[in-house]
Structures are given as C-alpha cells and as structure tokens.
Amino acid sequence: MDAHSADDVKKSVKTYFMIFGALMVLTIITVGVSYVHLPIAMAVLVALVVATIKGSLVAMYFMHLLHERKVIYWVLILTVIFFVFLMFVPLLTNLDRIPGSQPGTVW
Question: Does the pTM of the predicted model rise above 0.85?
Fold first, then answer.
C-alpha cells in the first residue's frame, strides 16, 4: 500500500467518523425534542426533518450515493413523488366523510 492510498483511507475513515458523530448528535436532538412539550404538529415536523437529514446522511455516505450517476437521483426523486402520492390516496378516498360534506355526493 503506497502513501497516497493510505491518506485516502485515513480521509475516508475521518469522514465516516464525522458522519457517525452527526448521526449521534441528531439522535440526541430527536430524544431531546421528545421531552419538550411541543404541539403535536410541530413535534411531528421536527421529527420528520431530523429523520430526513439522518436518512440523507446514511444514503449519501454509507450507501455511497453521493458519487452515483444522475440517473440514480431521478429514480429516487420519482420514488419520493410516488410515495407522497400514495400517502394522499387514503385522504382522497375519505373526502365524503369530512364533517359538513353531504354523504353520497360524487365530486
């Protein structure tokens, strides 16, 4: 192993330790926020933001998606769009049960 590759390995290990530290800090933030009495909507928003950041760090560094081709990013974006669409399907199917709307009406 030459000196150049040894430096690359040290740099990679340093990066992995930094990402690990960031994940630990974000986990502590998640636990800390659970003890703060926030409104439910705000608590869910904070939890989702922290989880999104943690998931992005894991995907970018530990799953090595940071250096992938652009096609991978488009596939992932399409997956997110499809997921969001699927999350709204139950809401759209239950619109006739909203208080104040008339049952049996078709949009």
Answer: no
